[in-house]
Amino acid sequence: MLALADEIEGFIQEVVPEAETVQKYGGTLFTLLPEEKEGQFCGVFIHKKHVQISFSKGASLKDPDALLLGSGKLRRHVNITSSAELERGKLKKLLLQAAGL
């Protein structure tokens, strides 16, 4: 899963090149404002059977492709089990939205 997480993190950096990374909560957070918690827009977390992209304000994102999972007040996530499952075009739309919030 480490190689998949690295691939996903590289993809996020390609989509939002101005984002900085912070190692926190057992994963890699992506932020546009490293000194402020509100700048965090997503994070990548390795689990036993998948890698999760967690969106800090995922409940506010438009998700016409129904990729997002979860039902909390703020966060939503996408679980990915393999490179073949990485839907770059659809994820790019979510990442750009999340970075713009």
Spans where pLDDT lies below 50 across 5 or more residues: none
Global outline: globular
Oligomer: single chain
Task: Count structural domains.
Answer: 1
Order of helices and strands: HEEEEEH
Termini Cα gap: 29 Å
Radius of gyration: 12 Å
Largest sheet: 5 strands, antiparallel
The overall pLDDT average reads 94
CATH class: Alpha Beta
Q: Strand-residue fraction?
A: 25-35%
Structure summary, number of beta strands: 5
Report the CATH architecture: Alpha-Beta Complex
Describe it for me?
With 101 residues, this protein is α+β, with helices and mostly antiparallel strands. It has a single domain (2-100), classed as Aspartate Aminotransferase, domain 1 (Alpha-Beta Complex). The protein contains 2 helices and 5 strands. It has helices at residues 2-15, 88-100, and strands at 20-24, 27-31, 40-46, 51-55, 76-80. A 5-stranded antiparallel β-sheet has the order 1-2-3-4-5. A hairpin with a 4-residue loop joins strand 3 (40-46) and strand 4 (51-55). The longest helix is centred in the N-terminal third of the chain and has 14 residues, at 2-15. It is globular and about 35 Å long.
Structural features:
101 residues, alpha+beta, Aspartate Aminotransferase, domain 1, five-stranded antiparallel sheet, 5 strands, 27% strand, globular
Write the layout of secondary structure elements.
Elements: H1 2-15, E1 20-24, E2 27-31, E3 40-46, E4 51-55, E5 76-80, H2 88-100
Antiparallel strand pairs: 1-2, 2-3, 3-4, 4-5
Task: Quickly describe the structure.
The protein is of the alpha+beta class and 101 residues long.
